[in-house]
Amino acid sequence: MADKFKVMNERALVQKSIEYRKKILKYIVGANAGHTGGSLSCVDILNVLYNQVLNVSPDAFVSPNRDRYIQSKGHCVEALFVVLADRGFFPEADLDTMCKYQSHYIGHPTRKVNGVEQNTGALGHGLPIAVGTALAAKMDNKDYRVFTLLGDGELPEGSNWEAALTASHYKLDNLCAIVDKNTLQITGPTSDVCNTDPLDEKFESFGWAVKTVNGHDLNELSAAFESMPFTKGKPNLVIANTVKGKGISFMENQVKWHHGVPNKEQYNEAITELDHALASA
Ligand SMILES: Cc1ncc(C[n+]2csc(CCOP(=O)(O)OP(=O)(O)O)c2C)c(N)n1
Q1: Cβ 210 under 6 angstroms from ligand 1
Q2: What CATH number does domain 11-280 carry, 3.40.50.970, 3.40.630.30, 3.80.30.20, 3.30.365.10?
């Protein structure tokens, strides 16, 4: 791998998360479309992965030894694009074309964008692809790791459970699935739409090693990823407890912000809140 990124101090990372939130809102407003609540809930996870954990770089993105990150909850592409731009995978100015005619920066990840590992957006595909990729690493005697991010509302897709079974059968301890457990999905609370709790016990019974963290605590996230494999020979699951719409008071825990686009006043209010958070970070 060409370069190992520099590990940032904690304060710089916290500030990055706030800047990322500002940019997510900016580009969602620019596109007049996007998945606001779920991008805000997962961006701390992406911050830690891309700035502390993943062995990836724009210059060596095709290296067979790179770590893989597959965003299964593809609808939250705004968070991914903002972080990839920050890591230099493409010029941030490209995001001004979000959802515009002929742009590759559309509402779900596509491999036409540098840094995107897999096309996703139809839920339930990221984990199966990640399992195959992690199995390939084992078969090729490579030591790269595979990370995939799922939403808790995505878990009822049956393909996830087939993949979970397969991951433990092949002892894929180089695989880490992260559930962004913000407890809401598109139409309501996940527990009402299709309950998947207790998630830890379900995955443990499938042969996974599970850690539960506060998905907005950068240290907890980092410590969990750094302790992989949690148990030798078992696939890793991080249950990240998060808040949908995190960081913007009037968006937090509100189903309508799943794909709500802020109007001008709401946008200004949100940016003011984030600027205050930045000032005290
Ligand atoms: C196969 C499939 N079915 C339905 C959808 C429509 N859809 C988009 S987002 C979403 C809810 C996902 O909830 P969750 O995974 O919890 O996402 P988050 O709350 O983190 O945004 C649904 C059902 C889809 N993208 N793919």
Answers
A1: no
A2: 3.40.50.970
